Amino acid sequence: AGRLAESLEAAGIDPGEVTDVLFTHAHPDHLWGLLDDFDELAFAEADYHMARAEWDYWRADDTLANTPEVRKSFVVGAQNRMAVLEDRIRLFDHGDAVLPDVEAMDTSGHTPGHTSFVVHDDADAVTIIGDAILNSVVSFARPDWPTGSDQDPQKGVETRSALLDRLARERTRMIGFHLPHGGVGRVERKGTAYRFAPVA
User: Which of 90, 101, 171, 185 is in Cβ range 3.0-4.6 Å of 120 for a Cys bridge?
Assistant: First the structure.
């Protein structure tokens, strides 16, 4: 977190050439980096995409009042950044093709509009899961355990279980933002549970 600009530079990516930015959700470590140190858009030429359910939740008039004190800063930060995106955002619904070969999958629970993205490829699709799965051991071994980081813990359980089943069944690669080995791996069944299998 906080090293996006230097990471892009190390990868040889010019921020001015980024055409599209897709948000899984609006938590600080997934949204706040869209502004640089001067409060300018980090990707000035890009189109920005977010699920309508996620956008509407964070932008609602009563979200701040209904949020526990410990997370009110999440709302204020999200709303400040969304105000900058007001004229640039492209909203989509779950199930839509956000871009050619990029499917928006409903993985709500962590947040009301949390989205994972399936990037379809003839050779080997990859699913970018955001924060739908957070722990490389517990989330796989006991997906039925609720977690306090999910805004709706029961919905999080349902989402996590369905997502793990799909990934194991389809054998597609996944990228999880908070998983080890760069978060790149596959889901394997392990008895009645699952395991995270990193891939190079």
Answer: 101
